[in-house]
Amino acid sequence: VHAQSIIATAACQVILMGQAEAFRAAGEGPGIEGLDSLYPGGPFDPLGLADDPDALAELKTKEIKNGRLAMFSMFGFYVQSIVTGKGPLENLADHLADPSVNNGFASATKFVPGN
Fold this sequence. Notes:
By secondary structure, the chain is mostly helical. The chain has helices at residues 6-26, 53-84, 88-97, 104-110.
């Protein structure tokens, strides 16, 4: 699978993750029989991080917060791309070249919706 083929990459992602999630949800598969379907452990926890219930609760909270932060960050990339018409690496290169001119405040004052 070539990494620049988004359709092939998405298909592989759907197949592989779908199979893992199907095993997890059904509670069947190699090494996961009889485990909790929401958090199976077993082969999905090779480091044994779920052995302590208090640590598991804290790790679950951290995972949720990390996911929310990642979604908010991606939203920032999308808005930045819409406003500037450039990708994140190109925007970073522009900002590093001249930080006082290429920043969020400068882009916000020049942005006209629909352009």
